[in-house]
Amino acid sequence: MSNTTVRLTMAQALVRFLASQRTEINHQRVPLFAGIWAIFGHGNVAGLGEALHAARSHLPTLRAHNEQAMAHAAIAFAKASRRRRMMACTTSIGPGATNMVTAAAVAHVNRLPVLLLPGDMFASRRPDPVLQQIEDFGDGTVSANDCFRPVSRYFDRITRPEQIIPALTRAISVLTDPAEAGPVTLGLCQDVQAEAFDYPESFFAERVWTPRRLRPDARELADAAEIIRAARKPLIIAGGGVLYSEAETTLKRFAERHGIPVAETQAGKSALPHDHPLTVGAIGVTGTGAANAVAGEADVIIAVGTRLQDFTTGSWTLFQNPQRRLVSLNVQPFDALKHASVPLVADARAGLEELATALEGWHAPAQWTERAQGEMAAWTATARRYTSPSNAALPSDAEVIGAVQRASAPSDIVVCAAGGLPGELHKLWQASEPGGYHLEYGYSCMGYEIAGGVGVKMAHPAGGRRLLPDDELGNRPLGHAGREADHRPSRQPRLRLHRPAAARLRRRELQQPARAHAT
């Protein structure tokens, strides 16, 4: 680092550092952090609040009314941005901080980056205990923020102003690493936020962060290719890692080149368009009859960028072939080694590219490819019967989904989380473009979709309509969750669909099918 220094408070240094981080998207350099969601109060207003106010022209502060909701908006923004951009969230100490713990778990399970900056107790302990401070009779170092430890990829408590230098460096490395991505929590002791230090100016130099594309190990690649070459009934399971790696085009070419059917997890849905000839749709407990029939016979399952959780595998009852082998392509070794898989630790796009080269000249048997296509054709016809208009007084979930689908544009994004509706959407919604299906079904947190819709719209401000179906929330007053965040993109069109509204929309379509539309 340079010997030249600048004297700043810890809070000022944190804000200046975040504002100087960049990433590249479509060959254009943009801020890594789109802004900081904030609810100011005891523990963050005097230090971090002042610093954010001074920097508001180049690091926007977005005011919210509920800590969990604003964190959900930040998480949805990161997911919709394919983990290329992210947001931070700051709260007061005590209940303000613990209100974010559930959202931290959402980000942790779904491997999504978000920077959490809760206020913390006084490092000096002079006014100990302060308002809202948790007192542990046996450990004086404990605060409410320790709740974040099990749901953070990286956790630190800043008790000296100079500690922010290594802490932020580690935080950004975790947030931008495809293998480690998840929530980072930095507990900011409230007295330390206002303490000054002579920081190296080089610490605030602009830095560009781009995803690391890990190439596969030669031995692992050879082992995986050997197993796939011997396959007679191969199946690809596309997970969220395909989208985060921006590998959907590579996946499409790989599947076409080798004639392999592709099934999709909740996180991986939209990796292929719904009408691609090799897609068999959603897989697992919430899957299509086509995908599950193919999975039941598959002798080699190629899992790409998926955690293979129980809903995907039917708690491992889905794969019935006793000779089946599992090849797991994943950037995170923890996932690649699950369930006695043959691991291929690599970035999804890079791994598929090298695997395609290693499989040059090989193609799945035509009878298997045709069998998968026949299963998908039969399923599509079945699904169409359930989603088509009827004269029922109370339409089914499938009919409502069909009505919304027909009123939607290919560029629309459906947002949902928790309950029964994600299961219906997974198998019935027809996603046309990558990222057009935005489900939080890793932690399955009720209410994510309300604030999450704001985050999605912030990530795609020029997009078409945004569809936000609620499930359990459908019978509550819409304002219950709708007022959780007061930041709204400027008058962008969107549709929040919950059960009563869905029924009205569906009945309106039945009455005027030629003019049905969503507003």
Description of the molecule:
The protein is built from 19 helices and 21 strands. The chain has helices at 10-19, 45-54, 67-80, 95-98, 101-110, 164-175, 218-229, 240-244, 248-258, 289-297, 310-313, 333-336, 348-358, 366-387, 397-406, 421-428, 448-459, 479-482, 499-511; strands at residues 5-9, 21-25, 28-31, 33-38, 61-63, 86-91, 114-120, 154-158, 183-189, 196-200, 207-208, 234-238, 262-264, 279-282, 300-304, 325-330, 342-345, 413-417, 437-440, 466-469, 495-497. The strands form five sheets. Strands 5-4-6-7-9-8 form a six-stranded parallel β-sheet, sandwiched between helices. Helix 6 links the parallel strand 8 and strand 9 (183-189). Helix 3 packs across helix 17 and helix 15 (397-406) packs across helix 16 (421-428).
Short description:
The chain is built from 19 helices and 21 strands.
| Rg of Cα set | 24 Å
CATH superfamily of the largest domain: Thiamin diphosphate (ThDP)-binding fold, Pyr/PP domains
Shape label:
globular
Which second-level CATH architecture of the largest domain applies?
Answer: 3-Layer(aba) Sandwich
Total of domains: 3
Cα distance spanning the termini:
54 Å
Strand order of the largest sheet: 5-4-6-7-9-8
Instruction: Compute the average pLDDT.
Output: 90
Query: Helix coverage percent of residues?
Result: 25-40%
Q: Given the structure, what is the number of helices?
A: 19
CATH topology of the largest domain: Rossmann fold
Strand segment count: 21
Largest sheet: 6 strands, parallel
Output the CATH class name of the largest domain.
Alpha Beta
Strand content: 15-25%
Q: Spans with pLDDT under 50 lasting ≥5 residues?
A: 471-519
Helix vs. strand class: alpha/beta
